[in-house]
Amino acid sequence: MGRRSDTRERIQHVALELFVEHGYENTSLREIAERLDVTKAALYYHFRTKEDIVHSLIADLVTALDELLDWGRQRPSTVETRQELLRRFSALVADRFEPVMHFIQQNIPAVKKLGVMHPLGEKLRELFALLCADVDDPEAALRTRLALVALVLGLNPIFGGAQATPPPDVALDVALELVAPRG
Amino acid sequence: MGRRSDTRERIQHVALELFVEHGYENTSLREIAERLDVTKAALYYHFRTKEDIVHSLIADLVTALDELLDWGRQRPSTVETRQELLRRFSALVADRFEPVMHFIQQNIPAVKKLGVMHPLGEKLRELFALLCADVDDPEAALRTRLALVALVLGLNPIFGGAQATPPPDVALDVALELVAPRG
DNA sequence: GTCTATACTTAGATAGAC
DNA sequence: GTCTATCTAAGTATAGAC
Predict the structure, then answer these.
(1) Residue A13 falls inside a structural domain
(2) pLDDT digit string (tens) for B118-150?
(3) CA A177 to CA B45: how far, in whole Å?
(4) Which residues in chain A have Cβ-Cβ distances shorter than 8 Å to B164?
(5) How many other CB atoms sit within 10 Å of the CB of residue B158?
(6) What are the backbone dihedrals phi and psi of residue B49, each rounded to the nearest 5 degrees, phi first?
(7) CATH at A8
(8) Are residues A158 and A89 in the same domain?
(9) What does the DSSP assignment read for A22-60?
(10) Nearest to B26 among A25, A138, A149 (CB)
């Protein structure tokens, strides 16, 4: 039998790479095709549109978040649960979704235009809600948001990005502290 | 004499508005011109290129940051100084530069491509350095970055943006706490 | 499953009249 | 200082051969 091709996965990988590097709108299908040494038309065989590539990328993330949320929902709302949620989210980002998160964070206009925020934003808001639990304090809510931001901040070039990206475990420690009750 | 026109300022204002709304690359000069009810060519009278509009927008921010840094440099490196730096930065953002910060944060690829990160990134890194002072702890450094992020987080739609933007004073309180020594 | 060739659209930018 | 008209380059996408 003919060797099965992993072209589709390679397109996803290279496209994401370029989207992160140059931004979504500054990346043309021609560039993607060239880096893969295929033609533009080949891309259109695997994906209906350029937007579809992004959708396929986000879909995996949404699935993973859904599983995380499923776990979180059927656990008692305790500090331990919330901290374990952060740990698992941190691991998810570090292990599999760092590039996608990077892409999303730095291409908000594109992401909004593609209507990707609907499924994704929902999941993120629910994660946020689980982490906030019953707390109604606006300061605590902001600290919770910052805890999540801390876990993906290594990806942000603003405010001293390049020189010192915090290691994931440092970020996790700070995040855990942010959702812990005050002293 | 003929009535002097404020067209240049109006272009800056409308352009920034559209850049924030739809993103830099999704905003065409045609759109800007239409919203101002002038023609594309009129824009080219006031700005050499589309990129120049962005440069003019960032320049004001860089100037303001420079003044803030001047103040900070000639003060003793104390907790009070650092907290006052945060207060002044917070006021700067809230009063004048919220839209520009919003634009920068959500259009990183464009901003990088325009080479705007050189003057701007320098200032932000120096602000960060002043806030970090002599502290060498990576956790403290991350908390400092988060303090800055907190002050512009209202602009970020990720992680529960739309429904509850923290009021500036809440953000400032959390930021101040993040740079204060631990208990 | 991959290619060639091309249609279609829109972008940024310029020249020159008024 | 603003207009009309136009140029050039690039993008996404399609049709149809191999």
Answers:
(1) yes
(2) 899 999 999 999 999 877 889 999 999 999 999
(3) 54
(4) 138, 141
(5) 22
(6) -145, 170
(7) 1.10.10.60
(8) yes
(9) H-STT--HHHHHHHHTS-HHHHHHH-SSHHHHHHHHHHH
(10) A25
B40 and B71 housed in the same domain? no
Amino acid at B19: F
Q: Which of B158, B165, B172, B177 to mutate to test the interface with A (most CBs of A within 10 A)?
A: B158
Nearest nucleic acid nucleotide to A51, CA to C1' distance: D12
Contact of A133 with chain B, judged by CB distance below 8 Å, is answered with no
Domain final residue pick, A47, A67, A85: A47
**Does one domain contain both A94 and A172?**
yes
Per the CB < 8 A criterion, the answer to whether B33 and B40 are in contact is yes
**Which one of B15, B30, B47 terminates a domain?**
B47
Domain that holds residue B90: 54-179
Q: Which pLDDT tens digit goes with each residue over A18-62? A: 999 999 999 999 999 999 999 999 999 999 999 999 999 999 999
**Domain count of the fold of chain A:** 2
- Taking the C-alpha atoms of residue B88 and residue B76, their distance in angstroms, rounded to an integer, is 16
**CB contact B117 to A (< 8 Å):** yes
Tracing tokens 């006031």 back to the chain, one arrives at B46
Beta-carbon separation of B108 and A171 below 8 A: no
